[in-house]
Amino acid sequence: MKRVISGVIAIPLVLGVVLYGSPLLFFFLVAAIVLVASHEYFSMIANVGMEGFPVEGGVLSFLLLLGFYLGTKFILIFSILFPIVLFAAWFFRENNMRMVLDPIAYTLLGVLYIAGLGGYFLLIHGLEGGSQMIVFLLLLIWAGDVAAYYGGRSLGKHKLLPVVSPNKTVEGAIANVLGTLLAAGLVKFWFFEGFSLTHCLIVAFICGIIGQFGDFSESLIKRSCRVKDSGVLIPGHGGFLDRIDSLLFAGPVFYCYHQLFLGT
């Protein structure tokens, strides 16, 4: 019930901003989600004593997203700050020569993993018909998650990768891909005219697979950090990072597919 209530509140809010909000409002939505997810990431690694630089990581994450929003040249400009800020953070806050690379590396990983991948949604939103593309992608991932959940519970017998995620099954993974394909077909005929049916099904198949890889990647981080969920901010769903882990991988793949096969 908590999962349903959270979905009923969050989904219309997100879809409303995507479809009817200004580009700036959408930027702040993505930035807010990324910064909360970044905080969850640093809290997880701190759970096992792997301290990063959460404040500096948050600032760099915001600047990286701002670069995505303003244009490629700004990404290149802001990227100059990455080594400067991270090494400066160590000089002013650390004194253990045995732990020089650890906080820098963990912070850089968090920034590139969450903000670097999440920024692709700003690129998609900036394309012609970008709002519809994002809704299309969101529905694919949400449909796949629902199909995997119920398919795995009712049919799941063979563990997919138990050392990382004990509850994931082969049957659930197959249901996920089938769910994305079904959603792609329905959405195509419902409102999405940006892609042909063939491209819709191809991108759904790819995102259905790569999205699950994103889910497993975040599960790997959680298991390594010995936590069940990335956070507790979304009742019944865990944290923000738990909800966007598949999207973080599917978004860049979706954008690259568009640029390679559909871009002008």
Description:
This protein is mainly α and 264 residues long. The chain has one domain (2-262). The chain has helices at residues 2-20, 23-46, 54-70, 72-79, 81-93, 101-118, 120-125, 130-155, 170-190, 197-225, 240-262, and strands at 159-161, 165-169. Strands 1-2 form a two-stranded antiparallel ribbon. A hairpin with a 3-residue loop joins strand 1 and strand 2 (165-169). Helix 2 (23-46) packs antiparallel against helix 3 (54-70), helix 3 (54-70) packs antiparallel against helix 4 and helix 3 packs parallel to helix 6. The longest helix has 29 residues, at 197-225. It is globular. The protein starts with a helix and ends with a helix. The mean pLDDT is 90.
Summarize the SSE layout with pairings.
Blueprint: H1 2-20, H2 23-46, H3 54-70, H4 72-79, H5 81-93, H6 101-118, H7 120-125, H8 130-155, E1 159-161, E2 165-169, H9 170-190, H10 197-225, H11 240-262
Antiparallel strand pairs: 1-2
Helix pairs in contact: 2-3, 2-6, 3-4, 3-6, 5-6, 6-11, 8-9, 8-10, 9-10, 10-11
